[in-house]
Amino acid sequence: MARGKIQIKRIENTTNRQVTYSKRRNGLFKKANELTVLCDAKVSIIMFSSTGKLHEYISPSTSTKQFFDQYQMTVGTDLWSSHYENMQENLKKLKDVNRNLRKEIRQRVGECLDDLSIEELTLLEDEMDKAAKVVRERKYKVITNQIDTQRKKFNNEKEVQSRLLRDLDARAEDPRYGLVDNGGDYDSVIGFSNLGPRMFALTLQPSHPNAHSGTGSELTTYPLLY
């Protein structure tokens, strides 16, 4: 049965289009390789898929640069001259931009002002005033954030101190707890650490399970302040 002809037009289905591209590309590269081997020809094929992916075939004995150099010699044209001229023009523009930016930076630190007119000096002054205003606002914002942080830290410490004092008052009402008087040995209740002095409360516990035996008691300390 004869194979029907395929109508040459864009394949709308994306998957079918990609499959057809892959198959025909491989077949084209295969034919190019056969032409290279059978006829000792130099063949180069460059193509881009609809997704922008590059596919290239070039005869094994030839590089892409050699191929295009031979093409330029044969045709008598220079493919790189216009590209090189565009690169040189872009380089010149970038150098001009860089030079102007460096000059503006020097002017903002008080240099290179001799050639400026009154209008240019006034404009520069206005720009520096605006820049200083932005820096000043940023500085005030940083200072305000630091003050808020310190205030929150102080309030937290104050709350902890109040809680500890309430706890101390509650324990003072318990007859089992007590603090040394002015004539007592404070070294026994105040300790020191890397964080500073600490205060302890004292409690007397029976030395035997029978609390009514009256045979003695043990001293126990409880940390109150750190």
From TrEMBL:
Residue stretches making up the K-box domain? 84-174
Query: What CDD domains does UniProt report for this protein, alphabetically?
Result: MADS_MEF2_like
Q: InterPro entries in the record, alphabetically?
A: MADS-box/MEF2_TF (IPR050142), MEF2-like_N (IPR033896), TF_Kbox (IPR002487), TF_MADSbox (IPR002100), TF_MADSbox_sf (IPR036879)
Gene3D superfamilies registered for this protein in UniProt: Transcription factor, MADS-box (3.40.1810.10)
Specify the superkingdom: Eukaryota
Every copy of the MADS-box domain together lies at 1-61
Q: Could you tell me what this protein is called?
A: Uncharacterized protein
What organism does the record attribute this protein to?
Crotalaria pallida
